[in-house]
Design goal:
Blueprint lengths: L6 E3 L5 H6 L5 E6 L4 H16 L5 E6 L4 H6 L7 E6 L2 E7 L4 H12 L1
Parallel strand pairs: 1-3, 2-3
Antiparallel strand pairs: 2-4, 4-5
Length: 111
């Protein structure tokens, strides 16, 4: 579980600083503690965080703890992955996705 340390936790308070003003692309995993598919996706997100460390910042947003951010990005279902680059949503995916799809989503934006 070494890659879990690469996964940050974003809040309504620090989202702008940590995500929108980031100098590198940011993968945000919108999740919830009660969501089964979110728990299934978590190890893949952690793995990606380790794989892309230094090139992409990876973090989670708990939709119940961060309603402002979840509402702003119209998160209707979890898990939802949003990939931000230069403060804008550059790619997104809703629902549980396989490892290769997650990797290609990140590579599309991060190169």
């Amino acid at each position: 579980m070494g890659d879990a340390m690469h996964v940050l936790h974003f809040s309504d308070a620090d989202f702008e600083t940590e995500v929108l003003k980031s100098s590198v692309p940011v993968l945000v995993d919108f999740t919830a503690t009660w969501c089964g598919p979110c728990r299934a996706l978590a190890p893949l997100v952690e793995e990606a965080a380790g794989k892309f460390a230094g090139r992409v910042k990876v973090g989670k947003v708990d939709v119940d703890e961060c309603p402002k951010t979840a509402t702003k990005y119209q998160i209707r279902g979890v898990p939802t992955l949003l990939l931000f680059k230069d403060g804008q949503v550059a790619a997104q995916s809703v629902g549980l996705i396989p490892r290769d799809k997650l990797t290609s989503l990140i590579e599309k934006v991060a190169g």
